[in-house]
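Lay summary. Proteins are chains of building blocks that fold into shapes, and those shapes determine what they do. In this project we predict the shape from the chain. Here is one chain we studied, written as its sequence of building blocks.
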Amino acid sequence: MAEYDSRRSSGGDKREERNDFLQWCIQHAKATGNPEAWKASLLAEKVLLLNFSAIHTSSFAIASAILELAASKQECIDDLRTEIEQALAEYGGQWDKRALTKMHKLDSTLRESARLNSIAAIGLNRAAIAKDGIAAPSGVKIPRGAAVGVPGYPILMDDSIYPDAKAFKPFRFSEKRSDKSVEYVKRAAKAFATTSTQYLAFGHGRHACAGRCFAAHELKLTLAHILLNYDIQIRGDRPRNSWYGLNRVPPVEATIRLKKRRFEAWLRS
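And here is the predicted shape, written in a compact code that computers can read:
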């Protein structure tokens, strides 16, 4: 904050200002004109909230995917490795967006794991802010300040939407994306970062997770690297998640065995 005030008071070059979340928060707070808005404690809380949203949710997601694969079949891992290696070979071993886009099975595995292990049990959390509340089409009245949401967990575990919903089927979505009898837009809607009323792992609508596409690429890169560089011991059982209020997180005490493996050296470039 002292650095920000010093630069502004001295008429420093705005091009030298930092371009990060903390800077944005400071600028927004200063624009309000309210000294309470730029207290260090409040700014720190905003950064911590962002860290939880961006870091811990990603670590939960990758941990859940690894635990699911460790309780799956070796053939699933073999298929994923083949797809990853083929996609990399097509683009000269370059880890870029084009190669990641080709990894439909990897994308499907992460989407399926997120479906089973979504951290939030309630979806589309909103607060009624209208002065007189809201009257729903059904006649139900929602008073001002009331919190509303939809049952996200039951939707993700609904057998009528996802046959055999409790089972981890890593290629559930890639199989649908490969069905050429379905128009492309509908097939593409099965991608990991795509939201819908039946898939709320990233929320939905105008307030869906703004960083979901970045997160999808990040998680695909991480899981692909692990699969290429390590063997995962198949254990046959998946430790249960832990509930904290309305949130679920992977079992923090669960352990797996990894073994370093070798693959074609050119893929490391």
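What the prediction tells us: The mean pLDDT is 89.
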